[in-house]
Write a structure and sequence with these properties.
The chain has 7 helices and 9 strands. With about 230 residues, the protein is of the alpha/beta class. The protein has a single domain, classed as Aldolase class I (TIM Barrel, Alpha-Beta Barrel), CATH 3.20.20.70. Strands 1, 2, 3, 4, 5, 6, 7, 8 and 9 form a 9-stranded mixed sheet that branches. Strand 2, helix 1 and strand 3 form a beta-alpha-beta unit. The relative contact order is 0.12. The structure holds iron/sulfur cluster. Iron/sulfur cluster (SF4) binds next to loops.
């Protein structure tokens, strides 16, 4: 489909990963990192994507043209960030990609429930980040409204039919085993059956430092609440 027939999309893109086996479950995907995030997480691994710049460093049409050349090879396109939910034209961007035959994925922390609701009918899969217990959210996100927005967004996902994954990055400097137990309890209370714990690695010039995941005994305790998968880097 020629892109000249499509509506002009204004979406701020910080970077594109042209090939990934990790960002959409079981599919080869490309990842569009949207620029801008209202959170400012203490451990953010993509801090360059936090400022919401007005001008995109990458043109959306160029991304679509690249994807057209990869049709048949790439199966999915994931909108990541930053947080894609702050992009006004997210629905149109997703629509244009989905109409070319790609599955559409979303990585989000649920920063804009209203937009999440708008785009869910054309979204095939959501990777949803839970930062910590909702009571302590601000300690990680440094955003006073983040807990409320994340809860609203999570409820929207749970009421929809979209496929999703709930995951938490375990940075042991900011999240304790008691916090993890608190998250597990509330996820179970919401009827969520599976939870992914992502290992956090602190990278510095003096070397990488692994921030320890819960130990084997603690993981077994968490499994009393729901199925737990460990994702190591
Ligand atoms: S929500 Fe994600 S992108 Fe935004 S500051 Fe937190 S870790 Fe970084």
């Amino acid at each position: 489909m020629p892109i000249t027939n499509a509506l002009k999309v204004s979406i701020s893109i910080g970077a594109v990963l042209k090939f990934s086996t990790l960002d959409y479950p079981g599919k080869l995907s490309a990842v569009i990192f949207c620029q801008g995030c209202p959170n400012n997480c203490v451990y953010c691994h993509n801090p360059d994507f936090i400022p919401a710049k007005t001008a995109s460093s990458i043109n959306f049409d160029e991304v679509v043209n690249f994807l057209l050349k990869r049709q048949g090879l790439l199966e999915a396109v994931v909108f990541s960030g930053g947080d894609p939910l702050i992009q006004n034209d997210l629905y149109e961007a997703m629509f244009q990609i989905k109409s070319r035959g790609f599955l559409v994925g979303l990585h989000t922390s649920g920063v804009n429930p209203k937009r999440l609701k708008e785009i869910l009918d054309i979204t095939d899969w959501v990777g949803f980040d839970i930062k910590t217990t909702f009571e302590k959210y601000e300690n990680i996100t440094r955003n006073k409204v983040s807990a409320q927005l994340a809860q609203e967004s999570l409820n929207i996902i749970l009421k929809s039919n979209v496929a999703y994954e709930i995951r938490t990055t375990v940075d042991s400097r900011y999240i304790t085993f008691e916090d993890l137990k608190g998250i597990a309890k509330s996820l179970k209370g919401l009827g969520i059956q599976k939870w992914v714990l992502q290992e956090c690695i602190l990278r510095s010039k003096s070397g990488d430092q692994k921030l320890l995941l819960p130990n084997t005994d603690e993981i077994e305790q968490l499994k009393q609440y729901l199925k737990v998968e460990i994702r190591r880097q």
